[in-house]
Design the sequence.
């Protein structure tokens, strides 16, 4: 309980920083391998002409994801939790010190791959976005409800795999179950591999950033 | 720290129960949707002629998985963690009280879908088995090393999806990386959908149970 309380102070400090520099912030959360990093590299490629983007990467080990992000040309800070199952606001605050906030419009936080713990922690972000990939199955919002209830947006990724007929993922069922938990949830059905649906997601991000300016 | 210590007492109590009733126990761990429940129902169908099996299901919410297991005819106890990100030995001890231990040969524990937290907790099981599914990508053992280091077996599931050409999962790379963390790791490349590789996994389970008898 005390840990959560202390971290809330850091979350407030982070949101004051975002407010001061008029920078948007989205916290990306999913199971391991749902496609967060692939979505981010495609999103950066689509937006970086008209928006200055930075990324904070959270992983238990390695800087594999930060290196993938840096290849797009935007700054990325890697946090290794060394066994921790989620990013804390304090860790994010440390990473913000390594980003040129005054020259950024949007910061993505890619959280540790975990559908449970990251849903509890407020990092000072403007919105949480949950990624659900089609191979995981369409029952995840019922089984892991907290993150779907607390997210502003849900991206159903790997929609390209539905065509090969080996998955039993019902898109309408997955959206219906998530909306029962969260009626205002924005839903994007996408494929980070083929580019399907990324336009609408980028529009949503542009709106988020324009509200912050 | 104190929580871990207390839970170790429960883990000891569980392993004494397994020893007393000469029952094997395997703790199945994976990301959400990697295929634990599907693997278990297929494994039960293949083994339940010559082995008496029980299952303890761990989920944040719902009894969807326990109902799927009960349809095979074996007893299943559902634990809802209500937000907890892993099963504790104390919860498992409570569930063991609801299973006919004297009439079972093998108990599976299907843990909460999470590659991080369940790796730390000892539930009194004979072995942990980690399931990695091909859509998640082949870098997971490097990024989430603890569970791969602490498991006796790794099942690479959804091998059927490799044939549709939309995944970039290198089986040799995934096995090599995991074996660097854990040289003795038994590896099974399977498909719970087509049945590929399930024979070898069932052989391994038979060996585990015969050692307990
Ligand atoms: N077919 C298909 N594969 C995808 C798509 N998006 C990502 N992938 C693949 O899915 C695997 C995992 O993608 P990542 O982007 O690394 O996933 P992640 O959520 O960042 O993973 P962690 O950071 O480890 O939790 C990789 O093999 C990607 O190539 C998609 O839209 N379609
Ligand atoms: N193509 C294919 N799909 C599979 C295979 N195994 C499981 N699935 C599908 O993967 C999805 C998730 O499977 P589950 O067995 O529910 O996964 P789980 O690990 O038990 O999920 P949680 O308990 O929620 O963590 C379902 O849609 C299954 O049909 C497989 O070998 N091949
Ligand atoms: Mg990633
Ligand atoms: Mg399951
Ligand atoms: Zn956690
Ligand atoms: Zn945890």
Sequence:
């Amino acid at each position: 309980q005390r840990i959560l309380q202390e971290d809330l102070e850091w979350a407030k400090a982070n949101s004051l920083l975002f407010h001061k520099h008029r920078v948007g912030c989205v916290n990306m959360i999913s199971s391991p391998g749902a496609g967060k990093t692939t979505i981010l590299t495609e999103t950066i490629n689509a937006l970086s002409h008209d928006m200055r983007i930075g990324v904070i990467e959270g992983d238990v080990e390695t800087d594999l994801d930060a290196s993938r992000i840096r290849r797009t040309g935007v700054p990325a800070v890697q946090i290794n939790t060394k066994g921790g199952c989620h990013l804390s606001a304090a860790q994010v605050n440390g990473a913000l010190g390594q980003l040129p906030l005054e020259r950024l419009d949007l910061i993505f936080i890619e959280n540790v791959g975990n559908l449970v713990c990251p849903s509890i922690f407020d990092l000072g972000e403007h919105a949480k976005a949950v990624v659900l990939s089609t191979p995981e199955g369409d029952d995840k919002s019922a089984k892991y409800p907290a993150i779907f209830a607390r997210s502003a947006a849900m991206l159903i990724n790997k929609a390209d795999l539905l065509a090969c007929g080996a998955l039993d993922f019902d898109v309408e069922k997955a959206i219906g179950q998530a909306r029962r938990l969260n009626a205002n949830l924005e839903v994007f059905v996408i494929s980070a591999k083929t580019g399907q649906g990324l336009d609408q997601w980028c529009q949503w991000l542009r709106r988020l950033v324009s509200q912050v300016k």
